[in-house]
Amino acid sequence: MELGTLEDEFRRELANLAGAPLTEEQVARVIDYALRSGRTKDFLRVLDEQSPPLRGLLYGRLLAQPLSRGGLQALEKHFRTALARGRWEEIAQVFVGTTDPRVALGLVRVLASTGDQRLVEALVQLLDRLPAEVAGEAFRRALHSGDARLQLLAVNLMSRTEQASLLDELFRFYLRLDPARDEKLRLRTREAFLALVDRLPEEEVEERVRRWLRDERPGAKLLAVAAIQRRGSAHLVPELVRLVLVDAKVRTQAAVALTALEGARLVEFDPESAPGEGVRQVLHRARREPLRKLLYQFMQSESAVLREIGVKFLMTIGPEGEDLPLLYRLATEERVAPVRGAALRALVRLDPARAVDALVRVLTDRAVLPGSSLMETVHEILARDLSEELRERVIQETERVRREQERVRERFAGEAEAWREPL
Q: What are 61-79's pLDDT values in tens digits?
């Protein structure tokens, strides 16, 4: 059969539909014929010649079908050609008011099949113009399609919306993914989840976060922790403190979130300050001796962030004399700057005179660079936390040690030069 003959046959079929009320049977028969013929591109070419109402109806019915790869390729090429010839808006108008999520899902499938950047942008803009609930339902269906490429696209599209219900969809989808098999999709789903968390109003997020924190699954709690950290929800700090104390599976991530909120000046680890209230209200309710034992475990943990949070929790409840040896060791031997800085602050609070030696060690350590976070911590301590007398002792002792270091370097340089002299 020649190409023109098939197009003419499509024209005759569509002519029979024009000007009369259409039945479901007629529409289904035409769409079925177009798909079974294997020449969807010819059908689309003829469809463009029809009246807008008929064209819109059949475009929608075609997109609502579970199209084959060939059908998707034909639609993709048809849309790409329309875009190149300046006819895209005419086609886009057909879909703007659709109430059928199957049509929106068809557009998502075409989007997943194209590598043309102009068409990608045009289709994304078109999906943005659809009714939110229609697009949202299409994204949900794509998410449950079992097609990894379509799922990844759906995740990306959902991250651009402002629909709270889609946050729940991403949450459930993330927890279903296998960390080993679906690593890329899982990572992108988490990113999309947090992007949506960023845009939703607080009242839409907080109730969900509290519900997720009550979920027994570690993955659910980890997403809740990430949401608290992302939004800087200082009023949920007590929840993070509880997780650090009682949940071994998520305590490290909860500790990371607490230190991040501290860096944003939303929380403090202090026995008296207002920003430290959320931390104190949990720690002060705990029995002191079991709590101190747990904090000692943290301070000797292989995890740097747990060592850091252990020191900061201890500083919040108030260190005791027997804590001095461990704090001194961390303040002088710890190689991770945030942990060492926290230990220095705790040591200054517990025994300012003993802290002088630890501060001098930092100031004379060539491995601690000027302007580093640890050096800035030391300068803050010198400026705000030490008496004038102790500050002067630190300065004098630092100068003495540096002079001694310089004499050692000069002596070593002289000995090295002597070896160069001919025998």
A: 888 888 888 888 888 998 9
- What residue spans of 85-130 are helical by DSSP H? 88-96, 101-113, 117-129
Model's pTM, two decimal places? 0.83
Q: Which two tokens stand for residue 163?
A: 């629909």
120 to 103, 125, 382: CA distances (angstroms):
17, 9, 57
Q: Is residue 263 included in any domain, yes or no?
A: no
Closest by CA to 139, choosing from 164, 116, 156, 120, is 156
Find all residues with CB under 8 Å of 85, minimum gap 6, and list them: none
Residue 3 above 50 pLDDT? no
* Whole-angstrom Cα Rg for the chain: 33
How far apart (Å, rounded) are the C-alpha atoms in residues 31 and 126?
Answer: 23
Q: Which of 80, 100, 130 is the last residue of a domain?
A: 130
- 304 in a structural domain: no
Pair of tokens at residue 237: 């700090």
**Among candidates 34, 59, 201, 39, which has minimal Cα distance to 126?**
59
Residue 80 structural domain:
1-130
d(CA 189, CA 183): 10
**Structural domains in the chain (count):** 2
Other Cβ atoms within 10 Å of 381 Cβ, number: 22
Contact, 276 vs 268, CB < 8 A? yes
